[in-house]
Amino acid sequence: MVTQVAPLQMAALPGWTALAPVLALAVTALVLLLVDSIDPDTTDTSLLAGISVVGSLVSLALAVWFVVGGTGIPTGQGGQGTPVLFNGQLVVDQLALFFMVIVGSVTALVTLASYDYVREHSYQAEYYSLVLLAATGMSLLSATNSLASAFVALELVSLPSYALVAFLKKNKGSVEAALKYFLIGAVSSAVFAYGISLVYAATGVLRFDAVATAIESGVLQTVVDGSVQAQAGEPAVTMSILGVGILMVIGGVAFKTAAVPFHFWAPEAYEGAPAPISGFLSSASKAAGFVLAFRVFATAFPIQALIADGGALNWVVAFQILAIATMFIGNFAAATQETVKRMLAYSSVGHAGYVLIGLAALSSSGEGLAFSLSAGMAHLLVYGFMNTGAFLFIALAEYWGVGRRFEDYNGLGREAPLACAAMTIFLFSLAGLPIGGGFFSKFYLFSATMNVGAWSLAAALVINSALSLFYYSRVVKAMWIEEPDGEDRVESYPTGLYTAVVAAAVATVLLVPGFDYVSSVAFRAATLL
Amino acid sequence: MVMVAALLAITLLGAGVVMLSPDRYAGKLAAAVSAVPALLSVYMYWAYLTQFEGTGNALLQPGDVAFGQQIPWIDFGGLTISYYVGLDGVSMPLLALTTILTTLAIVSAWTPIDERQSQFYGLMLFMETSLIGVFSALDFFLWFVFWEGVLIPMYFLIGVWGGPRRKYAAIKFFVYTNVASLVMFAGLFALVFSTDLTSLALPAMAEAFRSASGLPTVFGMNLLTLSFILMFFGFAVKVPVFPFHTWLPDAHVEAPTPVSVMLAGVLLKMGTYALLRFNFTMLPEVAQQLAVPLAIVGVVSVIYGAMLALAQRDLKRIVAYSSISSMGYVILGLVAFTPHGMGGATFQMIAHGLISGLMFMSVGVIYNVTHTRMVGDMSGLADKMPWTVGIFVSAAFGYMGLPLMAGFAAEFLIFQGAFDAATLGSAAPVLTAAAMFGIVIVAGYLLWAMQRTLFGAFNLETDYTVSEAPFHDVAPLAVLLLLVIVLGVNPDLSYEMIQNSILPVIDLGGGA
Fold first, then answer.
1. pLDDT for position A329
2. Contact B74 A440 (CB under 8 A)
3. Could A435 and B149 be called an inter-chain contact, meaning their C-beta atoms sit closer than 8 Å?
4. Is A495 part of a structural domain of the chain?
5. How far apart are CA A457 and CA A470, in angstroms?
6. What is the rounded CA–CA span in Å between residue B480 and residue B392?
7. Of A23, A261, B431, B441, which one has the fewest beta carbons inside 10 Å?
8. Pairing between strand A84-85 and A227-230?
9. Do the Cβ atoms of A481 and B166 come within 8 Å?
10. Bridge partners (DSSP) listed for residue B460
11. CA distance A152 to A136
12. In a domain, A494, yes or no
């Protein structure tokens, strides 16, 4: 006789527990503030970094558990159902959980690396709690289901980020970077908010599903008791205003993802910020911007209805232009840089261009969204490890007092072979050589473009990949092939940074055999949108 | 069968272990590790000869593939990719060539490589993993992973242990071949997405491309033709074919000798192997339409490479340019689309792999002793190091096509196959005759170089003692020479299995 094991009863828990990955990050941030208020002068780095790492790992573990357990999959398809919270403001589906996994992993790596990096600085508790607060915002952003909650979450990401970039406040570069970041951020927040107001004016609602219903039916909507209803009198959706609104929402997203034309802050901010924060912003913050973009454009602005109407904006064309421009500008600028960190900053802009393919590789009738979105998601996950790892290696180099230029890395491979081997894996994976997951996610993006016959996107992807190998390999060449200048620079092997760099490298390589799982989870999440 | 997986696993794990081992033991350890796949592949070769008699082409008769294994891997939105490996009469000899040559190259590195040894030998083994993968993979994606995977160790091997201009040579090699790979990739995928393929297995691709119809016209060309040209460009850089050959002399001259051995012996064959597998097996009709222009490219490579070799003073440069010449014969043989032409071309891959490896290794041994490679700096070495010089002279005659050595059989078969090739029409005799003239030039530069450096009265201004090289330097040379002679005396050892796998390809073209 077979004993039936009772399935895990997640539904029995109250609905808000579905937000546990977000709450874990928020609680950790509060605990850090509590520690700070008990002992304001604490420099117990082990305690602070320990709390942060444990908190982000708990968030990561919860998110992974939910993904595997089937939260966000309808019960009809063998899942646990999709929790919709706060009157539809938040939704914990597979897409949200997928990005919570990215945010959790990057936060864990960054806080682990910060253990050595900020050890000498004051205000450490504030540093860690700001990182965790920003991470909370990113995690929350992946679950937002309305333009209002999206704006709140976006600001929760942005405000701590400005402060974090300025964390080295005795360093002019850091302060200047933060100021630029803040000014451009403020402008783009305003643009985004104005775009939201226009969308609201045109449709009468802020919830993504309600906006979509309004656009599809051409009738203004309103939300009554949590359900979407047509407004009395049935005024028409004003498509021209909606189009401008959509364009401005694209602007807000472009800022957060460091895509053209709002990418100017990125090289400055990434170069001036403490290196772990550069990694945090360029990986997790970018991913958070993209999850917002994916969700808004996949659910709130249904492309088929917009194309059929013709009056509003066909955002696929906008994203195609942005994707190609971002790829070329990011990669060509990266190829001309003299410092490693700035090169990585521009390459991060270029990678935003690759991920934008997720919203650009659609056929002229709007088909193929699930495929291209899942390709973008998979690339962001892989990027979360390889790019964070690369910036953490820069953090390691800064820790050793190695200079900023390519030449300063000469011969580093002899002094620190393990870390340099890890960096080599990151760079080759970023360039798209099949040594890490980056090759596979780029190939996934490539097949998404070919799937709908988007030749120009495919060509841009291939050309930029070829170009990127040139500038990434300059670092590899410096580390392994050039002769060192003479004096030993590596005096110690900091535990936290080393562990983080090696962990990121192991994850990058393990994503080669594990890519099928990642891509199938991403595809399932995108299909369920 | 897990034989191929075992070869891959042993070399990959071995690479890791060797990299972590102390420099003192790294060379010996690497030789021991690489001997395992070498012996395994000899066993596989023997098993293939005795048990898989008549096995067909891996792409056209996938059911007959030897040592096959297929495990599903990734699903890219409807395109399935699997770990799919297997061998046929074309890949089996190339696999054996790879494993044997790697072991010999590692032994030949004991003398010249004296710094960062564990990294050097680790990378050599890592490269062997990728090369084994290239010749055994039957899934495009898996194959491409290995194809690109070869670049990484090669880049470091040239860049770290190479000569004075190593940095330039390494980056040139890297960027050049990577760009070529991407062009090839784009050309192939244009076809993959225009046909309703659901799998990237090479047999499925061959099937789909041959039955493809209603393909779009791009830039005034049928997509099949455009893809063929893009792929040909991608592989031609690797071969290399005139005018895409400029990376080769730089890479060869700067690379340390054991790496040159691998580069000339195996890496160039990746290009011709891929041409045979992709362009000629998957798109046979386009290949026949373009036969004359392709044959001209091949013949120009033969003559131009030989002329360039004639103009060099550096022994290594001479051998490097002559490789361009020899690979031109392979192109000529392939486009002929006749049993002897294609079979001879495949046989030439093996023969040239052994002979050019032997030539580079001999030059390396001479350089280890004299510290110069310049013709004119030295003369009369035959008295001082009779064994090395004896083998070098034999190898050079092998290169010139002396009967009873592998090179003769290969080139004879290619000429025979190309001479009455229907695909080349009335141009066939002219092109073949022109290619034959290449042999005369080869004889010219090799005899001239040998006469000046090896014979006459001994003369070399040096502080080093010039005497016979140590046993472990000469032994790999002897092994290679033995293989060249064995294949020359009895070409059927490889030629029979090559024929069995080539004939199905020829049938596609309707020729015979």
1. 93
2. yes
3. yes
4. yes
5. 21
6. 11
7. A261
8. unpaired
9. yes
10. B378
11. 12
12. yes
Whether residue A337 lies inside any domain: the answer is yes
From B87, B7, B95, select the one nearest B55 (Cα to Cα). Answer: B87
In a domain, A151, yes or no: no
Nearest to A480 among B77, B151, B160 (CB): B160
With contact defined as beta carbons under 8 Å apart, do B414 and B340 qualify? yes
The per-residue pLDDT for A10 is 47
pLDDT at A391: 94
Note the pLDDT tens digit of each residue in B56-106: 888 888 888 888 888 888 887 778 889 999 998 899 999 999 999 999 999
Segment B211-244, tens digit of pLDDT: 877 777 777 778 888 899 999 999 999 888 888 8
Interface confidence (ipTM) of the complex: 0.83
Closest CA to B422 of B249, B306, B289, B248: B289
Domain containing residue B192:
3-509
Cβ-contact A422, A322 below 8 angstroms: no
Looking at residue A513, its pLDDT comes to 86
Report the distance separating Cα B330 and Cα B309, nearest Å: 18
Contacts of B338 (CB under 8 A, 6+ apart): B417, B418, B420, B421, B422, B506, B511, B512
The rounded distance, in Å, linking the Cα atoms of A187 and A171 is 25
- Give residue A6's pLDDT: 47
Closest CA–CA distance from residue A97 to any residue of chain B (Å): 21
State how many domains chain B has. 1
DSSP string, B258-288: HHHHHIIIIIHHHHHHHIIIIIIHHSHHHHH
Block residue for tokens 């799937």: A451
User: What pLDDT is attached to residue A310?
Assistant: 67
Please enumerate in sequence order all residues whose Cβ is within 8 A of that of A155, keeping only pairs 6 or more positions apart, or say none. A137, A189
Helical segments of A118-207, H only: 124-141, 147-165, 172-203
How far apart are the CA of A507 and the nearest CA of chain B, in angstroms? 18
Residues B493 and B409: their CA atoms lie apart, in Å, by 12
Contacting residues of B for A459, CB less than 8 Å apart: 186
A523 touches chain B (CB under 8 A): yes
User: Which of A425, A447, A472 to substitute to test the interface with B, most B CBs within 10 Å?
Assistant: A447
Q: Do A519 and B192 touch (CB under 8 A)?
A: no
Query: Which chain B residue lies closest to A448 (C-alpha atoms)?
Result: B77
Give the pLDDT confidence of B278-328 residue by residue, as tens digits.
Answer: 999 998 888 888 999 999 999 999 999 999 988 888 888 888 888 898 999
A512 residue type, one letter: V
How many structural domains is chain A composed of? Answer: 1
A434 interaction partners in chain B (CB closer than 8 Å): 144-145, 148-149
Side chain identity at residue A25, one-letter code: L
Residues of A in contact with B151 (CB under 8 A): 433
Residue in B92, B79, B95, B89 with CA at minimum distance from that of residue B204: B79
- Least confident range from A192-201, B172-181, B318-327: namely B172-181
Per the CB < 8 A criterion, the answer to whether A292 and A144 are in contact is yes
Q: Is the peptide bond before A160 cis (omega within 30 degrees of 0)?
A: no
Classify A436 as helix, strand or coil.
Answer: coil
Q: How far apart are CA A242 and CA A200, in angstroms?
A: 8
For B162-222, where are the alpha helices, taking DSSP H only?
A: 166-194, 202-210
